């Protein structure tokens, strides 16, 4: 008997025998629900026998038989009623546990989201995507048409990657019916938030309305995705609307998991706790930096992967530079708490960064991962996991705490058939095509290619995906190859940047010859690029399908 926990109140399994009832009692269960009709197998006790065994152990018993493949709304309602009436925790079984899990999924549909239900069932080992439409429809079988809309290409996500790839594809094939699905009203230029936190950019320059950026001729479906049905070429939206596609491009970005750090969400934006990873908090970073004349400033970096791996350091260097200019750097105790074991993942850029670490007197603390924050007391607790040693914890005081939250794929991606074991969209790292579903591609932060998650990476990925989708429409194989390019302009002081540009395996991929701009050193040219050139390139080129200085490599012949 292998029990699988769905919730604290319900566990399920496949067929059990009479002697298992006593084991269930010892495990603390107080009620049993049988969802398997009598007579399905010769070794199957009848429900009367099971009820008698349950009564002998003092357990309540309920018989709600479900014919394989036919889970009715009435039975789901009865199951919900049973969970309400029976003492918990409850144990349910059928032949494999699938019917019981399906009943729970439909029974909970009116009080839990599709994503929450799919996450709970997937964690228990059951795939409920086959009933995602019914869950999205409150547990009731939809009576509408099989689809509410149909497009040649559907793009999930209206961020940098989504708008850029839609524009690039539209420029290649103007007659395509393309739809972008995204519920957001505002589109943000997130690379600019580092500069907001340093008082260089105004927050308003990093935000535009989503409607103003949707490419001409592209439809915008302002809704959230609930689930994917890749075998049916369908996306299920909140409210059970169904959008069908010939080809799908998935790029919703990633999820900032603030809640994973205990005590953090309630203290963000006050008590000296800030983060440049949120539009509304970046101005608070600058407010803190300007006002601090002495004390301890702590900057954190969570485990990889995160978007823009250099951003935690950028905030630190720019803050230290400001304190240096104010003449108060000598009064500051700057601590960098990095969950990883290196300052930067590409060694060629480390010497320049170490020079600034020394200049600003920064203490580097590797393998330190933020666990909890007590904002009122101004204390932060870290888990310290040095190699070959048992994990320990330390608590440090702070006057300013700049937090970078843990980052994961969005919930609706992690529970979907598109995800790998770690929850990221599973793609071929060269063509960015899904490894299982030939008419699906992914780009941006959500996919699992081993590249840096940056806007610069998405800028290079967009034409690769657009070219390969266009080739697929023409009946050809993949033609464009992604080399893992990513860029991280490391703002080490106001007016100078170490421009890190690299691809798969840490191979340097500079955009300029070394004599024009040496990215391994801090230069004013790189700052000018970051401050003056990259924002208009983002708004006026990348999001409009103008692929300036980008020419995808060709897929190597086999």
Automatic annotation (TrEMBL):
Residues 151-270 form the FAD/NAD(P)-binding domain. Residues 3-109 form the Beta-lactamase hydrolase-like protein phosphatase-like domain. Signal peptide: none annotated. InterPro entries: BLH_phosphatase-like (IPR005939), FAD/NAD-bd_sf (IPR036188), FAD/NAD-binding_dom (IPR023753), Prot-tyrosine_phosphatase-like (IPR029021), Sulphide_quinone_reductase (IPR015904). Its cofactor is FAD. SUPFAM superfamilies: (Phosphotyrosine protein) phosphatases II (SSF52799), FAD/NAD(P)-binding domain (SSF51905). It holds the Pfam family BLH_phosphatase. Gene3D superfamilies: FAD/NAD(P)-binding domain, Protein tyrosine phosphatase superfamily. Keywords: FAD, Flavoprotein, Oxidoreductase, Quinone, Transit peptide. This is Sulfide:quinone oxidoreductase. It comes from Celeribacter neptunius.
């Amino acid at each position: 008997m292998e029990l699988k926990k769905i919730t604290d109140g319900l566990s399920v399994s496949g067929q059990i025998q009479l002697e298992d009832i006593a084991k269930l009692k010892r495990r603390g269960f107080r009620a049993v629900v049988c969802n398997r009709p009598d007579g399905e197998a010769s070794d199957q006790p009848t429900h009367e026998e099971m009820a008698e065994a349950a009564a002998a152990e003092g357990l309540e018993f309920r018989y709600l038989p479900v014919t394989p493949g036919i889970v009715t709304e009435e039975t789901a309602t009865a199951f919900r009623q049973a969970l309400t009436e029976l003492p918990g925790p409850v144990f349910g079984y059928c032949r494999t546990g699938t019917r019981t899990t399906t009943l729970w999924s439909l029974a909970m549909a009116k009080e839990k989201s599709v994503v929450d239900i799919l996450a709970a069932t997937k964690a228990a080992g059951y795939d409920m995507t086959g009933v995602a439409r019914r869950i999205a429809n409150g547990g009731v079988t939809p009576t509408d048409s099989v689809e509410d809309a149909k497009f040649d290409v559907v793009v999930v996500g209206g961020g940098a990657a989504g708008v850029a790839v839609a524009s690039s594809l539209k420029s290649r094939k103007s007659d395509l019916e393309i739809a972008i699905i995204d519920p957001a009203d505002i589109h943000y230029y997130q690379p600019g938030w580092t500069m907001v936190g340093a008082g260089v950019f105004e927050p308003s320059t990093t935000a535009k309305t989503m409607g103003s950026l949707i490419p001409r001729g592209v439809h915008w479906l302002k809704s959230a995705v609930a689930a994917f049905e890749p075998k049916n070429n369908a996306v299920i939206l909140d409210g059970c609307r169904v959008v069908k596609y010939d080809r799908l491009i998935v790029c919703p970005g990633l999820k900032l998991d603030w809640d994973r750090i205990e005590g953090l969400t309630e203290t963000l934006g006050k008590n000296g706790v800030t983060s440049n990873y949120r539009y509304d908090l970046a101005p608070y970073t600058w407010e803190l930096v300007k006002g601090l004349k002495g004390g301890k400033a702590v900057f954190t970096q969570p485990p990889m992967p995160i978007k823009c791996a250099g951003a935690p350091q950028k905030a630190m260097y720019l803050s230290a530079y400001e304190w240096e200019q104010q003449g108060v750097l000598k009064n500051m105790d700057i601590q960098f708490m990095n969950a990883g074991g290196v300052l930067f993942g590409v060694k060629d850029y480390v010497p320049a960064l170490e020079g600034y670490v020394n200049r600003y007197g920064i203490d580097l603390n590797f393998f330190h991962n933020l666990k909890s924050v007590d904002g009122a007391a101004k204390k932060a607790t870290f888990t310290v996991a040095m190699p070959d040693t048992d994990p320990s914890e330390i608590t440090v005081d702070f006057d300013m705490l700049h937090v970078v939250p843990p980052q994961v794929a969005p919930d609706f991606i992690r529970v979907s058939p598109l995800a790998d074991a770690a929850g990221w969209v599973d793609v071929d790292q060269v063509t960015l095509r899904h490894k299982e579903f030939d008419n699906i591609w992914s780009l941006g932060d959500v996919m699992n290619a081993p590249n840096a998650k940056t806007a610069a990476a998405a800028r290079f990925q967009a034409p690769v995906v657009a070219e390969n989708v266009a080739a697929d429409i023409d009946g050809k194989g993949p033609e464009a190859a992604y080399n893992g390019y990513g860029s991280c302009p490391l703002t080490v002081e106001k007016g100078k940047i170490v421009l890190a540009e690299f691809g798969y395996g840490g191979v340097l991929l500079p955009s300029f010859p070394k004599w024009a701009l040496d990215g391994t050193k801090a230069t004013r040219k790189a700052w000018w690029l970051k401050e003056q050139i990259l924002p208009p390139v983002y708004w006026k080129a990348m999001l409009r399908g103008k692929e300036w200085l980008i020419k995808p490599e060709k897929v190597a012949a086999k």
